Amino acid sequence: MIRLVLTRHGQSTWNKENRFTGWTDVGLTERGIREAKDAGKILKEEGFEFQLAYTSYLKRAIKTLWYILEEMDAMWIPVYKTWRLNEKHYGDLQGYNKAEMAEKVGAEQVLLWRRSYDTPPPPIPLDDPRHPRFEKKYAALTPEELPATEALKDTIERIIPYWENEIIPSLKKYKEVLISAHGNSLRGIVKYLKNMSPEEILKFNIPTGIPYVFEFDDDMNLQKDYFLGDPEVVKKLMEEVANQSKKK
Prior knowledge:
The protein is an alpha/beta fold and 248 residues long. The chain has helices at 13-16, 30-45, 59-71, 98-105, 107-115, 152-174, 183-194, 198-202, 231-242; strands at residues 2-8, 53-55, 79-81, 176-181, 212-216, 222-227.
């Protein structure tokens, strides 16, 4: 049996403030740290023994992975970082409160920008200081690779080559692999693995800090998938993600 574990980073500071985050590099809250540690504890209890892991270039995912591996006494394993696992780039929306934006332009428009398969948010201007071309971590990327905005479709297109060329060979070799990444980059992998339609992935929410396990046979045929955690807690956290555009 081959097992892949996807973990969305623990709650970030901008998750807490209900802001569009995207490629903005924000840290974890105290709750986020606790979620990451809890994920590590349950993975250890369930007998997972990872020999390598993957994460994005964004510190909320990197630190989540650190806390998970620390709880598992596995900080020694190789960790591969790639921009291809970054969150979907939210373009010019980055930094804005989701509920306030919904009041301004309408909840349906915000939902379209957040979850549409092929409709990206407004792009960030090339001269905007928030544009990734001004960050050292992306200096090796070509102008064509650097997004000014992304739809989920674009996020999937940058992830799948890495999945096929790097992650699948690792899964076949080591049998257990951990990925710590983001809501939309992980939804892209989930859509691909489960052959979900754009309509199905639109409604699918991944909670922060809950390990999501995929089991495959030796030919990489998906056998089953499930969250590691109390079903009622998982349901509540999924609803929390779904309701981010609603005014509290």
